[in-house]
Specification:
By secondary structure, the protein is mainly alpha-helical. The chain has one domain. It is built from five helices and three strands, in the order H-E-H-E-H-E-H-H. A three-stranded parallel β-sheet has the order 1-2-3. The longest helix has 17 residues.
């Protein structure tokens, strides 16, 4: 973090669950990559802390469609996709900054 900040670089985190988001917020990351549809819904408290910290979100919802189509053991695809969208909607409704960008390169 210190090196990135000293160079004026943004710090991104690839959190895959709520615990990862919590750690990212404690560390002071600038941008979270992805919602976390395999995990529980985000609480109002978590969303509020994300927004208040100024952490932006790149939701990459297209990735969740790809994941749902390739993984038979994944949560029921409809639930999985709906949860990712709901997490994004909650973040956006709370005033969070949503960015666009790929994190899946084929």
């Amino acid at each position: 973090m210190e090196v990135a900040r000293s160079r004026g670089a943004l710090v991104l985190a690839h959190a895959t669950n709520i615990a990862g988001i919590e750690g990212s917020l404690r560390a002071g990351v600038d941008i979270l990559l992805h919602t976390t549809p395999s995990d529980d819904m985000w609480s109002e408290s978590l969303v509020r802390r994300m927004v208040e910290s100024g952490t932006a979100l790149v939701p990459t919802l297209i990735l969740w469609t790809w994941e749902a189509n390739r993984d038979e053991d994944l949560l029921e695809a409809g639930v999985f996709l709906a949860r990712g969208r709901s997490q994004l909607a909650a973040f956006h409704a709370a005033g969070g900054t949503v960015l666009s960008g790929p994190t899946l390169v084929t």
